[in-house]
């Protein structure tokens, strides 16, 4: 399976997701879940076939990590919809996924079989996949935060704020697991669990920022607006951790994570 097939799988998946979103707005839950799941199945099939073709996990380049993010966004939307019945979440997650899909179509990156020795660790694949799922859940929480701040404007009722909280709980839990697997990978590949290079420093900043949001929600119930701003700031830190560090002068040639800049 070559990367040239991506556009066909992507179009089919997006069409299923759009149909699922439409059915969610029409309050046909079973149809919404079914079509969204079929879209995920199609998209996931491409990932599996690409994995088989490359003979390695498709996780090395930024384009490949965007591939996983494009998959996990609708997946996170589906989980949120099934659990809390917010009919708009499937549409929002689809739109965000389409953005990343379009970037991958317009800016394809090298997808070859080469994998540097440090990435041949068994911890590499679970570390990145766990992180991509965490990013998707935290992306969904950011969508909810934007909705409550600038669309609904009254910062929502208890149920809607609880949705934000639950998404952050899940996302931060998986981020923590991702950091732990990353530390084990780093120990095996480089001989140390943590080195405070730019990627790891921003990962710590992001983790503490989301933890700040949780503490504000637990101890400062009347500060909903402030906590939502912290939530969105945390998502900005997350973007910096994910891809923004690639443009920092301090990361050029010195960061052990610059392998993903191909």
TrEMBL record:
The chain crosses the membrane at residues 6-25, 32-54, 66-82, 89-108, 128-151, 163-186, 201-219, 226-245. Keywords: Cytochrome c-type biogenesis, Membrane, Transmembrane, Transmembrane helix. The keyword Cytoplasm does not apply. It is found in: Membrane. InterPro entries: Cyt_c_assembly, Cyt_c_biogenesis_CcsA/CcmC. Coiled coil: none annotated. Residues 67-248 form the Cytochrome c assembly protein domain. The keyword Transmembrane helix applies. It is a multi-pass membrane protein. Its main location: membrane. This is Cytochrome c biogenesis protein CcsA. It comes from Parabacteroides absconsus. The gene is ccsA.
């Amino acid at each position: 399976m070559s990367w040239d097939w991506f556009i066909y799988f992507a179009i089919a998946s997006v069409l299923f997701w759009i149909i699922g979103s439409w059915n969610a707005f029409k309050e046909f839950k079973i149809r919404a879940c079914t079509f969204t799941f079929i879209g995920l199945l199609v998209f996931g099939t491409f990932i599996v076939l690409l994995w088989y073709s490359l003979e390695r996990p498709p996780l090395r380049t930024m384009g490949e990590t965007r591939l996983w993010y494009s998959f996990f966004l609708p997946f996170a939307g589906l989980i949120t919809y099934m659990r809390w019945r917010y009919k708009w979440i499937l549409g929002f997650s689809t739109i965000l996924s389409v953005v990343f899909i379009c970037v991958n179509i317009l800016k394809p990156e090298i997808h070859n079989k080469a994998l540097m020795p440090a990435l041949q660790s068994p911890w590499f694949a679970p570390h990145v996949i766990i992180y991509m799922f965490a990013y998707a859940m935290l992306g969904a929480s950011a969508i909810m935060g934007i909705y409550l701040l600038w669309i609904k404007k009254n910062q929502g009722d208890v149920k809607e704020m609880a949705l934000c909280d639950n998404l952050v709980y899940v996302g931060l839990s998986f981020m923590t697991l991702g950091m732990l697997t990353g530390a084990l990978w780093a120990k095996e590949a480089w001989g140390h669990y943590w080195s405070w290079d730019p990627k790891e420093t921003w990962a710590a900043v992001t983790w503490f920022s989301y933890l700040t949001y949780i503490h504000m929600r637990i101890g400062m119930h009347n500060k909903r607006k402030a906590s939502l701003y912290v939530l969105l700031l945390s998502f900005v830190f997350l973007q910096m951790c994910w891809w923004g560090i690639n443009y920092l002068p301090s990361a050029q040639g010195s960061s052990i994570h610059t392998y993903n800049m191909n």
